[in-house]
Amino acid sequence: MVEVVVDGGPLTRDEVVAVARGGAAVRLGDAAVDAVAKSRAHVDRLADAQAPTYGVSTGFGALATRHIPTDRRAALQRSLVRSHAAGAGRPVEREVVRALMLLRLRTLATGHTGVRPATVRALVDLLNADILPVVPEYGSLGCSGDLAPLSAVALALTGEGEVVVGGTRTSAARALAERGIGPVTLAEKEGLALINGTDGMLGMLVLALADLDRLLDVADLTAAMSVEALLGTDRVFGDELQRLRPHPGQAVSARRIRDLLAGSAIVASHRGPDCHRVQDAYSLRCAPQVHGAARDTAAHAATVADRELAAAIDNPVVLADGRVESNGNFHGAPLAYVLDFLAIPVADVASMAERRTDRMLDATRSHGLPPFLAEDPGVDSGHMIAQYTQAGIVSELKRLAAPASVDSIPSSAMQEDHVSMGWSAARKLRTAVDGLTTVLAVELLTAARALDLRAPLTPAPATARVVALLRERVPGPGPDRHLAPEIQAAEDLIREGDLP
């Protein structure tokens, strides 16, 4: 099995996906163990000092001015985790829980949080045993990090709350006991260190970027198939035209569409002097510009994610010289902004795909294709309502593109008077990515059917291979059939990642 070593240095996005989505095991590096032990020694020293230190010997948030006596500090940490595990709603997805656990572990391993080595090892054990705390969907404002979601994880470490093991929901106490993992009794600073991070936001960003890396390639593919099906030209995708506007993402998408159309007998059939069409519609001609801008937006978001994967997010933090300092690095704004930003091109790429689909179904604009690609128009409706499904999703994606990060609701008796709402931005982006997948699946189905209907003209070798892959799961043109399973089959094909 693949193993990811957490040594206190940056993780890569691929490593996060491997653990979160692929179930890779995690191992704590020797450098991390040393760093954690050194920072804990500093915290132990401050815990014994007369002067109060925030997070070590004081209350939290608006109660930071209250000094806590030594014999009450274990209760302080336990109470912090219990009270902050106040989420509500449906549990978030398995991959999100694994991602946020891994990313909190990475920050703990930097030696800037002051937790004990045994606590870090317990989190490693929980992750490797695939004991996943039940993390409710609501509860994070994205400032002071993802407090409620991470508190659900910390609670499970102490043997309280509920977890999911092998798809079954059970008590954390029972799951830990069955696997020989002892519950953690939290010491000074540890409760705060376990919950004060942006790990949920970051995990969902990394997962969304992995999905978009695949989906933007699929958008290029379905656009190329639609260009063929609608008797469009490939000349607009020429390299000399793209160099006039040197955006890197645009160049990538134009090259991909051009390569996918190479050798198409359908495109070649209308290149001669008998073709009087001057320009294709924007949804065909401008695909590289829209898809490319989405690629460039994702590249910016990836830069932010990579910086965060090298960050140590906690408050207060333990510095190399032993000082424990308060800071504002837990604020989720850098993540919230790009999570919101990505929802815009997701909606726009889907909107363009829906327009291409609609064009193939409209006999007045499809250049010879039957109405709605129906076998017997009037008796059969073809893909008419599949486009309705696209339209409904695109409308929803436009609503999801409204930013969450421009909102702020003060909390904690006005101590936390500005929050990022980054968790909300991440949750809506996940919904948007799923929506884009369905929209592209409908375009894939429709374009493949249209290409079949262009026979005896044949599509490009690349697009013909895609039609053949789809035909292994979905039959070709014919009388109306139950379409929902075919849309699902196309979604599955997209998610498997085997398309060019």
How does this structure look, described?
This protein has 500 residues and is mainly α. Helix 9 (199-229) packs parallel to helix 15 (333-361). The protein starts with a strand and ends with a helix. It contains 19 helices and 9 strands. The chain has helices spanning 13-20, 30-47, 73-84, 94-108, 117-128, 147-157, 172-178, 190-195, 199-229, 239-242, 248-261, 265-268, 282-285, 287-308, 333-361, 384-400, 422-453, 461-471, 484-496; strands at residues 3-6, 25-28, 88-91, 132-133, 136-138, 162-165, 168-171, 317-318, 324-325. It has 2 domains: 3-197, Fumarase C, Chain B, domain 1; 204-496, Fumarase C, Chain A, domain 2, CATH 1.20.200. The chain is 54% helix and 6% strand. The strands form 4 sheets. Strands 4-6-7 form a 3-stranded antiparallel sheet. The chain has a two-stranded parallel sheet with strand order 1-2. The mean pLDDT is 94. Helix 1 links the parallel strand 1 and strand 2 (25-28).
